[in-house]
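Hi C.,

You asked whether I'd gotten around to modeling the 154-residue construct. I have! Everything is below, sequence then structure, no commentary in between.
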Amino acid sequence: MSRPRFLLLALAALAVGLGGCGGDARLSKAEYEQKLTAVGRELAEASKPLAQAKTGPGFVSAVEQIQGGLRKAADDLGGVKPPEDVASANDRLVDALRGLVDEFDKVKEAAEGGAKKARDAGARLARSNPSGEARQAVLEIQRRGYDVGLLSST
């Protein structure tokens, strides 16, 4: 293989290798705010059926939708590199969202005993450690000047 051809192949391989590294870049403030807004919208959509649930099985189904939304939100936020000033708060938010998935298992179990027990378990969930951690992480992100969209009502 001629030297110029080898050099071109080496440069092409380097370009391909570097192209895969682009995902390591931190999001800008605007990009991160867009991600937070999208996550908040998805969580709001996933939680709608819960307000309409009237029976134990209805609560179970609604909770499963919320758990799916929480998992997706945690994966989405956990899969990005937020701006440095909110990286720690983002990590705590991701952990809290994953913790809420587990907390919703308790609501699901309670729902087997009927809607009232599910509502009571939901009230306990609102006072749970993951719920408080999520609120604190969102508040920290807001204090740093970020628009968190619908997550502000977390």
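If it helps when you're writing up: Residues 43 and 148 are 13 Å apart (CA to CA).

Thanks,
B.
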